[in-house]
Write a sequence for this structure.
C-alpha cells in the first residue's frame, strides 16, 4: 500500500448504539470529535491511530467523517482473527446486537472470518484474513462500486450499483464480536484518496533535513588504518567543532518540531534508524544511534525529545506486534534490535521507563512471540516439511499400556519432524535472546549517573503492573493477555538469574540462583505491596492486631498504635459478618460443598478486600534481636510504591531495606541484591495471576492432535475392512482420511511452534526452578512460627500449580523425571502438603481446600505416593493424625477420599480401574468412567492402625463421625432416588434436573467411600469393634450393624426402589449400582464376623439379621473378586435381588 501502518488516523470513531447515530460533521473538519464511549466497544487512541475492542455480542461503530462523491479508501489492521464485518454505511443505518454493518439495506461489509460479503443477503467473497493483515476498503461513488483489498491485493468488486444521490453519504463502519479488535489507519492507492491526506510537505522537509544531518555525520568519520572510525560524541561536546555543531543546531531547530508527529517519526526517523542496523552485526557495533540520541537530547527541547521517543517506541511496538511471521522471523528481529539500541542509551531508557513503557503502551508485547494462526504465514511447511504425531493412545483416549515397536517409516518421520523442530527452535531462540537483552537493559542498576538507576524505576513500574492485573481481573481492557504473560515470565526469569549469578560471582558468600528464595520478612515488614491479595492467616489488618506481640518478639517490629486503632474500626463490621456466615454453615453443607465444589488444584488464590494499610504499614523498626527500649521507638516512613528510592529497597548504613525485621530463624547470610528479591516475588505472583491458566489452555492443541490421530486411525481401519463392492462407502472414507490427514499436518506443525515457545525443555526448567523457589520460600517462612501467617496465599498455590503443570502439561514432550533433584523436590513438596493441609495458621477456605485436593492427587500416583512415604516419620504420623480427626465441623469428603485412596487395592473386590457392572453391560463403550490404578500404602496404613489402637479417644471420635456421615449420606441418597422414581412414574413427560442427578451420584459415591474407610479400619484394627474391654467397642459395633442393616435393606430387597432407579439407566447415574456398595459391605463382614467371640453371639442374631442372610445365602456369585485375586482375574459380577428375610 505504500504508507506506514501507524499513519495519521483516517477519522475518529463514535459508537452507534441501537436507535441512535452520531452527528454528521463537516468533511472539512480539522479534528473530528470522538463520541462518548458505551459498553459495546472500547475505543482507544494509540499512536494517533484508532484501536477498537469489542465488549458485546456484536457491537457496531462508524466514523464521524463521510464521503458523497469521488474515490476514497481507508485501512483496517486486523488485530484478531474472529468475527467482524468491515465496510461502509449511511447515516440511516440502525444497528443492534444482532444486526451490524452489512445487515441493513444501505450498509456493505466484507467478512474475512467467514470469507463472505454482506448487504442484507450474503455470498462468498474474498479470502480468509488473519491477525496482522491489512484490509483496504475502497468506495467509488462516481461508478457506484465498493471493493476490498487484502494486504494490498485486490479481492475484486464486491458491490455495484450502490445507492447514490442527494442526501446519501457513506461512513467507514465496522461490527465486531466480543474481544475482537482492530486498528484504523489511512492508506493510499492509485486513483483513490485517503480520508485524511498524507503530510506530503512535512515529509519532504523531514527527509531533506535528515539528509543534511547524514552529510554532517560523515564529517565525524576519520581514516585510521584504511577503515572509517566514528568519533566519540563527547569529543564534539567538550572540544567542539563550532561550525558543525552550529549547523546541526540550525537543522534541529527545524527538524525537532517535525519529530513530534507520529507519521514522520515512523516514516522518516524509524526507517533511518532501521537502515543503520541493516548493515548487520551486534547492536554495539552501531554507535551512530547512540550519538544521534545524544544530539537529540542536546539540541532539542525536552518536550520534543519526550514526544519523539514516545512516538518512536509506539511505532516500534506496533510494527513488532503486527508484522507478519516469516520463516526466519526477520521482521521481529529487526524491530527488537532497534528497540535494544534505543534502550541502550541511558537517558532515553530512563525517560521511557518513567513515562512510556508501562504507562502509555503495553510494553510486555515486546516479550511476546505470537503463534501463527495460519501455518503458511510462518513458513512452517518449509521449516518442517515432514509431519509426525504419536500413536500412543487407545480408543478411550488413554495412554496405551502396550509399548508398540516403532516401524522404520515412523522412525524416519519422527526424526525428520524433530530436525524441523530444532530448526524452528534455533530461529525462535534468536528472538528470545534479544528480548532477554532488552530486559537486562531495563534491570541495569549501575546507570546512576543521571539519577535513579533503571532497575529501581522498572521495579516500581513492574509492581504497579502487577497491581493492575491483580485488582482488575474482571476488566479485560486493563488485564495483560495471559499469552503475553507467559513469554514475559520466561524472559524475566532468564534476565533475573543472569543478574543473580553475576552478583554471586562478585560475592561468593551470597546464594546462587539455584538456591534462590524470598525471605519471610518481605511479607510482614510493609516494604513490599501485596495489594488486596489474601494472606495465609487472613487479612493483613487482622494479622497486625493478633500478631503484634509476635512481631515485637521475633522481628523487633512495633505497629503504630494509631494505625491499630484505625484498623480495628475499619474491620469491625467485616469480622462480625465473617463470624456469622461461618456459624451458619451446616455440617452437611460443608461435606456436600466440598464434594461438589470446583477443583481448586488449578484455581487461582482467593482475592481479599483491598486493605488501605497493606503496602505502607506504619512500623517502628529496631536493631535485630535487641531488647526494646522506650526511647528507641521511632516511626518508619510511609511510602507509596512510586515514592521508593534505591535506599528504601537496597538499604544502607545499617538499614537493611527490604530485609528489615529479620527473624531469628533466618541466618545473617547475604542472599542477593534486595531488588532482585522483589522481582523474584513479582515473578511468583505473575505465574499465579494468569500464566498457569494459559499453560493449561495451550495443552488443547495436543489434545486436538490426539483426537484427530485416533479418528484417522479408526478411519484407516474402516477402509481396510470396507467391502470392495461398497465403492460409495470407500470413497467417503477416503475423503475423511484426507481431511483428517490435512488437519493433522496443520496441527502437528502448529504444535511444534507451541512446544518450542511454551513447552520446551528450557521453559520446563524455568517452571521447575519456580517450583523450587516456592518450596524454599515456604520452608523458610514455616520456620518463623506464627509469622508464617503473613505469607501471601499465592506462594502455596504456585507450588501446587507449578507441580501440576510439570506433571500434566509438559509431558510427553519432556518428562519431569529428567529434571535435576526431582525425587528430593517431590519429597519436600509432599512434606509441605502433609504439614500444611491442616495447619491452624492457614485460615482461608479456598487455600485449605486446594492443599487437601493436592494431597489427594499426590497419593493417587505411585511416584508421588512414594514421596509421601519418604518424608520423616514424625511428619507422616502427624499427617495421619490430622486425617483421622473427627469429620464434624470441616469439609470431610476430601479427607475421606484420601483415606480411601490409601486403601484402594487392599479392600474386598477393590482393585478395578473400570466399574465392573459397566464393563459387563457396556464392554465396548469408550466413554466409561476410568479410575486411577490402585496404589495402596501399607506404610501409612500401619501408621493409621497404630494411632487408632494406641489412642483410646481418637478411635471412637473418628469412627462415630464416619458413622454419622454415612448415615447422612445414605439417607440423602435414598431421599433423592425416591424423588427421581416419582418423577419417572408420572404420566406427563418429566426431565430430572442434571444437577439433582449429580448430587444423587455424589451421595452414593460418598456412602461407598465411607464404607470402604470402615472396612479399612476394621481390617487394620479389628479390636476397636471386637475387644469389648474397650468402653466404646460395643456401642460402635451396634451402630455399625444398624447402618449395614439399613444399607442392605434398601439395596437387596426384591424389586425395590434402588432396583427401579438403577434400571432406568439415567445419564449421570452410571456409578449407582449394586456392585460397588455390596462388595464394600461384604468386605466389612468378611473382616468382622471371623473375630466374633461367644459372648457376642447375641448381638450376632439381634443386630445383624440382614447381614447374615446376605453373607450366608450365597448372594454373591463365585466370579466376585476376592482380596487375593489379581487384577487380570477381575470379572464383573451382578448381584441378584435376594429377599432379605428368606
Amino acid at each position: 500500500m505504500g504508507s506506514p501502518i501507524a499513519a495519521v488516523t483516517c477519522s475518529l470513531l463514535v459508537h452507534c448504539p441501537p436507535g441512535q447515530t452520531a452527528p454528521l460533521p463537516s468533511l472539512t473538519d480539522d479534528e473530528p470529535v470522538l463520541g462518548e464511549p458505551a459498553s459495546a466497544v472500547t475505543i482507544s487512541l494509540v499512536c494517533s491511530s484508532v484501536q477498537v475492542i469489542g465488549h458485546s455480542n456484536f457491537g457496531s461503530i462508524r466514523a464521524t467523517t463521510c464521503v458523497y462523491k469521488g474515490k476514497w479508501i481507508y485501512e483496517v489492521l486486523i488485530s484478531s482473527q474472529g468475527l467482524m464485518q468491515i465496510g461502509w454505511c449511511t447515516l440511516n443505518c440502525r444497528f443492534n446486537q444482532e444486526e451490524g454493518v452489512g445487515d441493513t439495506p444501505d450498509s456493505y461489509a466484507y467478512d474475512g472470518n467467514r470469507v463472505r460479503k454482506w448487504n442484507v443477503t450474503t455470498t462468498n467473497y474474498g479470502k480468509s484474513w488473519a491477525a496482522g493483515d491489512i484490509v483496504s476498503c475502497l468506495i467509488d461513488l462516481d461508478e457506484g462500486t465498493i471493493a476490498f483489498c487484502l494486504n494490498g491485493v485486490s479481492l475484486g468488486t464486491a458491490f455495484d450499483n450502490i445507492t447514490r444521490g442527494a442526501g446519501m453519504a457513506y461512513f467507514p463502519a465496522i461490527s465486531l464480536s466480543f474481544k475482537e479488535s482492530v486498528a484504523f489507519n489511512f492508506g493510499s492507492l492509485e486513483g483513490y484518496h485517503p480520508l485524511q491526506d498524507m503530510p506530503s510537505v512535512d515529509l519532504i522537509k523531514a527527509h531533506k533535513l535528515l539528509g543534511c544531518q547524514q552529510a554532517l555525520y560523515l564529517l565525524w568519520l576519520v581514516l585510521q588504518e584504511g577503515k572509517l572510525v566514528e568519533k566519540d560524541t563527547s569529543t564534539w561536546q567538550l572540544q567542539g567543532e563550532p561550525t558543525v555543531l552550529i549547523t546541526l543546531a540550525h537543522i534541529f531547530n527545524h527538524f525537532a518540531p517535525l519529530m513530534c508527529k507520529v507519521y514522520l517519526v515512523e516514516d522518516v526517523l524509524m526507517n533511518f534508524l532501521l537502515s543503520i542496523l541493516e548493515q548487520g552485526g551486534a547492536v554495539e557495533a552501531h554507535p551512530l544511534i547512540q550519538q544521534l540520541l545524544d544530539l537529540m537530547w542536546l539540541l532539542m527541547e525536552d518536550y520534543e525529545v519526550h514526544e519523539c521517543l514516545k512516538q518512536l517506541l509506539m511505532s516500534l511496538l506496533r510494527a513488532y506486534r503486527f508484522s507478519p511471521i516469516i520463516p526466519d522471523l526477520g521482521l521481529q528481529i529487526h524491530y527488537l534490535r532497534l528497540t535494544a539500541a534505543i534502550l541502550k542509551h541511558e537517558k532515553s531508557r530512563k525517560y521511557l521507563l518513567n513515562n512510556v513503557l508501562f504507562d502509555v503502551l503495553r510494553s510486555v508485547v515486546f516479550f511476546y512471540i505470537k503463534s501463527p494462526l495460519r501455518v503458511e504465514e510462518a513458513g512452517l511447511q518449509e521449516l518442517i516439511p515432514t509431519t509426525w504425531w504419536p500413536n500412543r493412545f487407545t480408543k478411550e483416549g488413554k495412554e496405551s499400556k502396550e509399548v508398540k515397536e516403532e516401524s522404520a517409516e515412523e522412525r524416519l518421520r519422527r526424526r525428520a519432524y524433530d530436525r524441523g523442530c530444532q530448526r524452528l527452535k534455533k530461529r525462535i531462540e534468536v528472538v528470545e535472546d534479544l528480548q532477554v537483552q532488552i530486559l537486562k537493559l531495563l534491570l541495569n542498576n549501575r546507570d546512576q549517573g543521571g539519577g535513579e538507576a533503571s532497575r529501581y524505576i522498572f521495579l516500581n513500574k513492574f509492581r504497579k503492573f502487577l497491581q493492575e492485573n491483580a485488582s482488575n481481573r474482571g476488566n479485560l481492557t486493563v488485564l495483560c493477555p495471559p499469552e503475553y504473560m507467559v513469554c514475559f515470565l520466561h524472559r524475566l526469569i532468564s534476565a533475573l538469574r543472569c543478574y543473580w549469578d553475576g552478583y554471586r560471582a562478585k560475592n561468593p558468600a551470597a546464594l546462587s540462583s539455584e538456591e534462590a528464595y524470598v525471605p519471610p520478612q518481605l511479607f510482614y515488614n510493609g516494604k513490599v505491596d501485596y495489594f488486596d491479595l489474601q494472606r495465609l492467616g487472613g487479612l493483613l489488618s487482622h494479622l497486625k492486631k493478633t500478631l503484634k506481640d509476635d512481631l515485637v518478639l521475633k522481628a523487633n517490629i512495633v505497629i503504630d498504635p494509631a494505625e491499630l486503632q484505625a484498623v480495628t474500626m475499619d474491620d469491625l463490621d467485616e469480622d462480625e459478618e465473617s463470624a456469622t456466615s461461618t456459624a451458619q454453615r451446616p455440617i452437611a453443607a460443608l461435606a456436600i460443598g466440598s464434594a461438589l465444589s470446583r477443583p481448586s488444584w488449578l484455581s487461582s488464590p482467593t482475592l481479599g478486600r483491598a486493605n488501605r494499610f497493606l503496602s505502607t504499614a506504619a512500623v517502628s523498626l529496631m536493631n535485630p534481636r535487641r531488647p526494646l527500649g522506650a526511647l528507641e521507638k521511632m516511626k518508619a516512613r510511609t511510602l507509596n510504591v512510586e515514592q521508593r528510592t534505591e535506599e528504601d529497597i537496597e538499604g544502607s548504613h545499617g538499614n537493611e531495606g527490604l530485609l528489615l525485621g529479620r527473624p531469628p530463624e533466618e541466618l545473617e547470610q547475604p542472599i542477593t541484591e534486595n531488588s532482585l528479591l522483589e522481582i523474584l516475588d513479582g515473578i511468583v505472583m505473575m505465574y499465579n495471576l494468569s500464566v498457569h491458566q494459559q499453560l493449561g489452555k495451550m495443552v488443547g492443541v495436543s489434545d486436538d492432535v490426539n483426537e484427530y490421530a485416533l479418528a484417522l486411525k479408526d478411519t484407516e481401519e474402516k477402509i481396510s475392512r470396507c467391502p470392495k463392492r461398497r465403492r460409495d462407502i470407500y470413497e467417503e472414507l477416503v475423503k475423511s482420511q484426507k481431511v483428517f490427514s490435512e488437519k493433522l499436518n496443520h496441527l502437528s506443525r502448529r504444535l511444534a511452534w507451541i512446544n518450542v515457545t511454551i513447552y520446551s525443555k528450557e521453559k520446563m526448567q524455568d517452571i521447575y526452578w519456580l517450583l523450587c523457589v516456592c518450596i524454599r520460600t515456604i520452608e523458610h517462612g514455616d520456620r518463623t512460627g506464627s509469622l508464617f501467617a503473613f505469607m501471601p496465599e499465592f506462594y502455596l498455590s504456585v507450588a501446587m500449580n507449578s507441580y501440576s503443570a510439570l506433571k500434566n502439561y509438559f509431558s510427553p514432550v519432556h518428562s519431569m523425571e529428567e529434571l535435576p533433584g526431582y525425587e528430593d523436590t517431590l519429597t519436600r513438596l509432599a512434606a509441605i502438603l502433609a504439614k500444611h493441609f491442616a495447619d491452624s495458621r492457614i485460615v482461608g477456605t479456598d487455600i485449605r481446600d486446594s492443599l487437601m485436593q493436592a494431597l489427594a492427587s499426590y497419593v493417587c500416583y505411585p511416584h508421588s505416593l512414594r514421596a509421601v512415604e519418604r518424608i520423616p516419620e514424625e511428619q507422616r504420623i502427624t499427617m495421619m493424625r490430622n486425617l483421622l480427626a473427627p469429620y464434624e465441623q470441616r469439609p470431610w469428603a476430601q479427607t475421606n477420599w484420601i483415606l480411601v485412596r490409601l486403601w484402594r487395592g487392599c479392600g474386598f473386590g477393590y482393585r478395578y480401574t473400570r466399574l465392573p457392572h459397566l464393563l459387563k453391560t457396556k464392554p465396548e463403550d469408550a466413554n466409561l468412567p476410568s479410575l486411577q490404578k490402585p496404589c495402596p500404602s501399607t506404610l501409612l496404613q500401619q501408621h493409621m492402625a497404630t494411632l487408632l489402637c494406641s489412642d483410646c479417644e481418637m478411635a471412637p471420635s473418628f469412627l462415630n463421625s464416619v458413622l454419622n456421615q454415612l448415615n447422612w449420606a445414605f439417607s440423602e441418597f435414598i431421599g433423592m432416588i425416591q424423588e427421581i422414581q416419582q418423577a419417572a412414574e408420572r404420566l406427563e413427560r418429566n426431565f430430572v434436573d442434571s444437577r439433582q442427578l449429580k448430587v444423587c451420584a455424589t451421595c452414593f459415591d460418598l456412602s461407598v467411600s465411607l464404607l470402604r474407610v470402615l472396612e479399612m479400619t476394621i481390617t487394620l484394627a479389628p479390636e476397636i469393634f471386637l475387644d469389648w474391654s474397650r468402653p466404646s467397642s460395643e456401642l460402635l459395633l451396634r451402630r455399625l450393624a444398624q447402618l449395614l442393616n439399613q444399607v442392605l435393606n434398601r439395596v437387596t430387597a426384591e424389586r425395590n426402589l434402588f432396583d427401579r432407579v438403577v434400571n432406568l439407566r439415567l445419564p449421570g447415574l452410571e456409578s449407582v449400582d449394586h456392585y460397588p456398595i455390596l462388595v464394600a459391605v461384604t468386605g466389612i463382614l468378611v473382616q468382622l464376623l471371623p473375630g466374633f467371640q461367644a459372648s457376642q453371639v447375641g448381638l450376632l442374631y439381634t443386630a445383624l439379621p440382614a447381614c447374615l442372610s446376605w453373607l450366608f445365602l450365597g448372594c454373591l456369585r463365585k466370579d466376585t473378586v476376592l482380596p487375593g485375586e489379581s487384577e487380570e482375574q477381575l470379572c464383573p459380577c451382578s448381584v441378584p435381588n435376594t429377599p432379605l428375610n428368606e
In short: The chain has a mean pLDDT of 78. Residues 535 and 792 are 4 Å apart (CA to CA).
